[in-house]
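Lab notebook: predicted structure, single chain.

Context: the supervisor wants predicted structures on file for every construct in the current expression panel, including those that have not yet been purified. This is the next one on the list. No modifications to the sequence; it matches the entry in the shared construct table.
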Amino acid sequence: MAITETRTLPAAFIETLGKDYAAGLTNLTGTPIDTSKFAPSVAGQDALQTQAATLAGQGVGSYQPFLTAAGTAGTAAGTALTGAQSLLGTAGTELSGAGTALGTAGTTIGGVSPFISAAGTGLGTAGTTLGGVSNFIGAAGTPLSTASGLTGTGTGTGTGSIASYMSPYQSQVIDASLANYDQQSAAQRSAVTQQAGLGTVGNLDSGRFGVQLGAFDAQSQRDRALLEAGLLQQGFGQASQARQSDLQNQLALSQGQLGLGQAQSGLAGQQAAFANQQLGLGQAQLGLGQAQAGQAGQQAGFAGQRAALAQQQAGLGQAQLGLGQFQQGLGGTTQALGQSDVSLLGQVGATQQAQSQAEADSLREANRLAAYEPYERIGFQGSGVTGLMGGYPGQYNFSSTPNPTPLQTALGTGATLAGIYGAMQPRRN
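Prediction complete. Output recorded below exactly as produced.
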């Protein structure tokens, strides 16, 4: 039986547009999108970044020549200061000659002698005190040597080993503890035997009790072994603690002896300073004698010339030392400037790399938009067709046996048009 349906058809131009839209949609959805043109990409390292890395590698150790030059200047300074010390020694000799000339100024020289004697006594006392420092240092060496023998694992049985700190009564303690345990175990075994009602040893191999008694004996042996091992471990721990305590005591004793040596050295320094004060007073008295003796003054003049030359040598040494410090500072400055250049090149290179990355991202986005532009266009077309269908609901009606129109067939390929052509769905009687 034929089915009669009534349909409202759109205007002819709308139906043509719908067919064109459906055909375009079918072609578009049937063609895969080439995503290779808008795949993510990373900009390569900029040439300035590469240059910065190269310069950074080349700049490593660039300060070394300056440090070498500074060391050379320091050596020269040491040589100059040594020459100054030699000249001062010569000046001292000439001052000694002046002392001979001062013999003509008996009174004045006589006044010098007590100060010189006091200075000599002070220096002798300082020497004696300073000699005592070595005793303290030597005394510090003994406990330090003992402490060195207490380091390590403490294996063996020699001096400083853990075994040497073990209690000499440990074996007696272990034997007494094991004997007490054996006594208690025998009493417990007897109790177990009596509880079973056996009474005599001749009945111990009977049935289940023999098994129980064997288990008791095995557990008793294990407990006895654990007791013995625990006592041995306790003795080992106590010996280890005693060894560590002895180590700390020896180290503390060594530090105490060194402290006494330092105090002794400080006392010697004070005594030497007092001797220098006495010597200074003697030199003042000697200056008065030089004023009284012309020959002594001449000798003192020679000594002054030597001292001036020594000062010149010392000044040269200070200049050499300053040059070395300048060379050292120049090396640091050179390296800092090189690092600044590397940092600036790295920053500029990073900026250019970021620009390249932004250009790559922009190109990728443009390619993506170009790839999806046909889909946006077909979407606009579909929206337009939908709007036209709403503005032109239909032109005429007719009844016939239903046969799908080409437009319906085309629109069936696109699920998104189901709502657009909802008004065209047949109404069945």
